[in-house]
Amino acid sequence: MRTKDELFREAQRHIAGRRQRAVTDAQRKRAAAFAAHPALAAAEEARVQAGLALTLAAARGKDTADAAARLEAAGQALTKAMQDAGCTPADLEPQFTCPRCQDTGIADGAPCACVAAVARKLRREEINAASPLALCAFSSFDVSRYPAEVEPELGRPPCEYMADVLKFCRSYAEKFSPKSPNLLFMGGAGLGKTHLALAVADAVLERGYDVLYTSSAALAAQLGREHFDRDSEDSWLDACKEADLLILDDLGTEHITALTISVLYELINTRMLCHRPTVYTTNITDQGIFEARYTEKVASRMLGNCRMFKFFGEDQRLKR
Question: CB 3.0–4.6 Å: which of 78, 186, 209, 311 could bond 191 by disulfide?
């Protein structure tokens, strides 16, 4: 899992690689065209020499009219040679993926939008490697799978309630900002908690924010390795602290130790103080169990700063 800076640098390397490939391909095409059409190579060389002569005349303060005329004639001859060879100037120039920055990653003195686009693609690939992100969208969240009978705890059918939850999550993603609240999805296994959390992640990522996904078990295991491996350069904790949105999935599945509790407290407290929203999912529905597992200090920061949604119904995976 990469931090924002690591992801940005990786995106820049991808852009630089694209530029190098475009330049190399153009050089190969030019060499092939000149080998196949000697007259084209001669015309190109004549234009280069005419350009150098004009530059030299200007540098020496001499009259440049004749040199300029020769350059214009050489240009016309090159155009004719290209027509005879069946190509255009653009055919022999690098074909950059991003015409705005020409694959330099910089436009108007600032990072080009193409760098952010590549960073988003890399982050999406990273999340996909750890989750079914590509399969989880708002459009594929089927509320008809939830019971149509009235749920006593809700006072209405879960299918109607989940339609409202889906609507809220769509709006949450569309309006996401550092001021957005934390979300806590709780309920039994297979009720769509992870699906909805990842749908939020995908939509927020598409809007240009940096989003991280990790299961609680994977996070705890990795942080344990990093704690005992001082040479480790892969800092999951730093990446999780600074992400614009963090999806912390399956709370309750991690191996609890004093280190786990300490790191969770540090992560949650840092994100809370920096106003960086988190979406939690858990099978734990009893607040007492939550506090007993994570301590009152950690639980209060989770539960007290979240918009909570309880999921009802039968395991959707078993129904499918």
Answer: 311
Is residue 16 predicted with pLDDT exceeding 70? yes
Smallest Cα–Cα separation from 124: which of 116, 33, 188?
116
Are 237 and 267 within 8 A, CB to CB? yes
210-257 pLDDT, tens digit each: 999 999 998 888 877 766 655 555 578 889 999 999 999 999 999 888
Listed in order, strand segments (DSSP E) in the chain are 106-107, 110-111, 182-186, 211-215, 245-251, 278-282, 306-310
| d(C-alpha 135, C-alpha 132), whole Å | 5
**Model pTM greater than 0.85?**
no
How far apart CA 6 and CA 122 sit, in angstroms, is 11
Question: Residue 218: CB partners within 8 Å, gap ≥ 6?
Answer: 130
On whether the CB atoms of residues 30 and 87 are closer than 8 A, the answer is no
* Cβ partners under 8 Å of residue 41, min gap 6: 34, 35
**215: three-class secondary structure by DSSP:** strand
- The residue among 112, 89, 115 whose CA lies nearest residue 101 is 112
Question: Residue 4 — left, alpha, or beta (φ > 0 → left; ψ -120 to 50 → alpha)?
Answer: alpha
Tell me how far CA of residue 139 lies from CA of 143, 166, 244, in angstroms.
10, 10, 24
